[in-house]
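Incident review: delayed structure delivery

Summary: a single-chain prediction request sat in the queue longer than the usual turnaround. Root cause was a stuck worker, restarted by the on-call engineer. No data loss occurred. The affected request and its eventual output are reproduced below so the record is complete for anyone auditing the incident later.

Affected input:
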Amino acid sequence: MFILFIVFIAVLIYIIFAFILYNSQRSLMYLPTENNYSGDELTVTIDKIKIKNDDNIELLAWYHEKDIEKYKTILFLHGNAGSLENRIHKINHFNDMDVNFLIISWRGFSGNKGQPTEKGLYNDAKSGVDWLKNKGIKKENIIIYGESLGTGVATEIAQNNNFAGVILESPFTSMVAAAKSNYPIFPIRLLLKDKYESDKKIKNIKSPILIMHGEVDKVVPFWMGKKLYKLANQPKYSYFNKYDDHMMEFNEDLINSINSFVKSLN
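Output delivered after worker restart:
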């Protein structure tokens, strides 16, 4: 009887934790108030705009235009934490490249209304594409740039499309695989609401692709970036740095890799 009681308690605890995990998963996945790289100063000129998505939510976005006829335009899709200000140290480098760019903030981020979900973020990203198209920028002149969680969104909207190129920074194969590494004892595929299965979609991307990943990434294992690179179609390029963690260092080598990729698309 005592052993049955212990088993009962163990199963009950397991069910309770699974229930908590299921109900709190989006608060664990989406972290809009986390603040990294604060205090960086913009050195590139931007226009602060609002983009309305299909759910009638206005998304804060920053737009920089050099020459939409002459240069490609980057649509930057950021990761699961923080605000647009936390990407200043990255987008400042676009000022030294022959590109225009649009960086959008997700629903529930940077003061935007709404709650982030996988379907919602796909909607937000497509709204960014539509906004650029309304500016007169053709899809074949848009580069989709995904950062971390944003790589799952980038892979979704880039598949079966004719964008100029795709850049994936610190990408994961799927949120299912990423969550399993942190919660191996739970039936993640059954519990997970937002799966972001990039490994099932990347073969549908026909645009040139650049995949960047740090070998000591403690958030998204490096093998995931390597696997996506293996699955990707040609032409494909990689920037794998043996010293970078999840927050890759935007040093001269990385910036040159992005710049070379952009130039190859012209």
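Verification: The longest strand covers residues 58-64.
Action items: add queue-age alerting; document worker restart procedure.
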